[in-house]
Amino acid sequence: MAKKSGGRLVSSAGLVNYYDSDDHRAIHIDPKVVIVLTIVTGAAIFVLNALF
């Protein structure tokens, strides 16, 4: 029977949690901005599709 090594969770299967890192160089976008841009892009595609 194999030994467990290092006390790691076997069920994690090598997955890494990246949300704990506080990188100040990263680009931070407010979720509201993403939603608004998605709606605007969708509306623009709808209008362009109707015109052409």
Automatic annotation (TrEMBL):
GO BP: any one term: protein transport
Membrane topology summary: Single-pass membrane protein
Keyword Calcium set for record: no
Predominant location category: membrane
Signal sequence, start to end: none
A Gene Ontology cellular-component term: plasma membrane
Regions that span the bilayer: 33-51
UniProt entry keywords in alphabetical sequence: Cell membrane, Membrane, Protein transport, Translocation, Transmembrane, Transmembrane helix, Transport
Keyword Ribonucleoprotein in record: no
Superkingdom of the organism of origin: Archaea
Entry's localization field: Cell membrane
Cytoplasmic topological domain residue ranges: 1-30
Family designation: Belongs to the SEC61-beta family.
Quaternary structure and interacting proteins, as annotated: Component of the protein translocase complex. Heterotrimer consisting of alpha (SecY), beta (SecG) and gamma (SecE) subunits. Can form oligomers of the heterotrimer.
Protein's job: Involved in protein export. The function of the beta subunit is unknown, but it may be involved in stabilization of the trimeric complex.
Protein name: Preprotein translocase subunit SecG
Gene source species: Methanoculleus formosensis
Name of the coding gene: secG
